[in-house]
Amino acid sequence: MIKNSAFLIITILLILCIIFALTTGQYHIKLDTLWKVVSLKLSGKTPSDDLATPSMVLWSVRMPRVLMAVLAGAALSVGGVVFQGIMRNPLVSPSFLGVNHGAIFGASLSIIFFSKSAFSIEGFAFFWAIAAVALVYVIGNRGVNTITTLVIAGVIVSTFFMAAGSFLKYIADPYEELPAIVYWTMGGLNNILWANVRRALVIIGIGITVIYTFRWRLNLMAIGDEEAMSMGVNVNRSRIVYMLFATLIVAAGSSSCGIIMWVDLIVAHISRMVVGSDHDVLIPFAAILGAAFLLFTDTIVRILPGGEIPISIITSFMGAPLLGYLLMKQNNEWKG
Amino acid sequence: MTTQNNDILAVEHIDFRYREKQILKDITFSVSPGDICGLLGPNGSGKTTLLKCLNRILSNENGMIRIKGLDLSKLTRREIAGLIAVVPQELDIMFPFTVFQMVLMGGNVRFGFSGIPGRNDISDAMEVLDELDIGPLANRRYNHLSGGEKQMVLIARALFQKAEIILLDEPISHLDFKRQYTIMELIKKITADKNLTTIITLHDPNIAGRYCNRLIMLNDGCIVHEGLRNNIFHAESLAAIYDMRIKIEYTDTGTEYVLPHHIQ
After folding, report:
1. Hey, are the CB atoms on A232 and B93 less than 8 Å from each other?
2. Whole-number Å distance between alpha carbons of B117 and B101
3. Helix (H/G/I), strand (E/B), else coil: B42
């Protein structure tokens, strides 16, 4: 009953965030205008002259950005839940396993040596994010009871890619390339196009579908390797599947939006507090909450006076104190 | 020592080595259906390692383990879980799963490709909880339970796994005096009622002597004595595994109890 109410509340919250995000910005769109523009689009009609501007703003700028925020928020949050579950550690997030530093390295490579086009940066970031996690798995996998070695391997690989990324920044042209790298690193959805949304939709859609299909077995993985094995789970194979698809969705989000800090960790934590640890409920809840959280944050970023600032600054400012507050309030809940 | 065709579990000349250290040496024994088989031995004698080999969490070197005549090394993880359930020594978990969720996990082998329980599975799991009189705990968080309650939940989970063999790793070692006997009585009852075979590692020879019909006595990775309880449960055999002088005394009703020799 409590869980149903929680789902209802965050679903309404997400819908309100979407309406807020679509109507708010430098060009304000009234609610009735929004309704008209959406109705015209759905019925396939061309908007009249007075609706041409709001229609253009909505379909060319705001809608892809809103959809991308929803997709990336859901992907980062589900990725966080999955990594915490298979690592049995509520402090683990995809960034611990090198996803972020791999993506930064890839984006920097593209900006300095190949192309500054969004497509190229996105492709490089995606590839190197996955390569970093693959490297973590190769170094850290020790079969049963491998969690500690995987986390240590994550630290090693992250440090290595951080050093490589710093080196690329050091040799980058300080007037064009370096600012581009730094800005990408801080994350943002200001350059999102429909092409980004389509690519992210395919990867994140497939990834979340696969993870949700096998959601229940994540419960067993979250208990312990030997426990899961004694109940019939092929732990090594399952870990590869979960890590692969969680990495894919997080990399798809990060490569399009840059590095967005804290969303994975904070949303996974709050979701566990509200609906518990059963992944049957936890995964969809985290997806909806993550989508609402990132969309709300992105909208705040857009409407702040003085122009748009990188989104990670806001997610970190909101996430760190909120997590600290929740940790103090919950009295070691995770340890039982 | 020989194994017979009607044995549900037969272990033939297995060794296990961890790095340079030989943990198990030439282990051979068999267990018949319905047995409560106790593994006795001092700390470090290889009891838990042997249990992990029986469940193939660890892979033995040499020799063979047969479950119902099937070579354990050729079975998939799922097939093994269909035959053997495990109750661990003490399980603390990081995330706050409820008692019901914990028990439901035991049915994983029957949940199909995606591993999602059906409606019948949910009602079956609830029945198992009620059967062990822990139904009222269903929505409590597992980590908030006492040691005895946790052990009951883990036994319920093993029952819901519906395997014919249950391995229990020191299930009473951290329980108080009363709970030790409550859990052992429960194990005895479910073994008989559900036609199970139980293999259990124990520290207390008094408990082992009271509840097990078959004993395997280990020391330094080797079987020192093995067989029916009534044939091998005596002061000399226990002295050999614990490396101390032991005496067995009798109460007025004829119940045996094991004591170190110097205790009056």
Report:
1. no
2. 11
3. coil
> In this complex, is the C-beta atom of B211 within 8 Å of any C-beta atom belonging to chain A?
no
Show residues of chain A in contact with B82, CB under 8 Å.
232
Give the CA angle between residues B174, B177, B179 to the nearest 5°.
Answer: 70
Q: Chain A: residue nearest B81 by CA?
A: A232
B237-251 per-position pLDDT tens digit: 999 898 889 888 888
- For residue B79, the chain A residue with the least C-alpha distance is A232
DSSP per-residue letters across A84-130? HHHHT-TT--GGGGTHHHHHHHHHHHIIIII--SHHHHHHHHHHHHH
**Who contacts A36 (Cβ-Cβ below 8 Å, separation ≥6)?**
A47, A51
| CB A154, CB A136: distance < 8 Å | yes
Say how many CB pairs under 8 Å bridge A and B: 99
pLDDT tens figures, A260-288: 888 888 899 889 888 989 999 999 999 99
Q: Is B149 on the interface with A (CB under 8 A)?
A: no
Chain A residues closer than 8 Å to B91 by CB: 223-224, 227
**Chain-chain contact of A216 with B94 (C-beta, under 8 angstroms):** no
The third-level CATH classification (topology) of the domain covering A66-335 is ABC transporter involved in vitamin B12 uptake, BtuC (1.10.3470)
Residue B211 CA to residue B199 CA, distance in Å, equals: 11
Give me the residue label for tokens 């959280």: A293
Among all residues of chain B, which has the CA nearest to that of A336? B143
Spell out the domain ranges in chain A. Answer: 66-335
CA–CA gap between residue B126 and residue B107 (Å, rounded): 12
The H-assigned helical ranges of chain B are 47-54, 77-83, 99-105, 119-131, 147-161, 177-193, 205-211, 229-232, 235-242
Token pair belonging to B57:
């969490």
Domain residue ranges in chain B: 34-58+78-233
This prediction's pTM: 0.89
Residue B263, chain A, CB below 8 Å: the answer is: no
> Is CATH 3.90.230.10 correct for B34-58+78-233?
no
CA distance, residue A137 to nearest chain B CA (Å): 21
Complex-level ipTM = 0.91
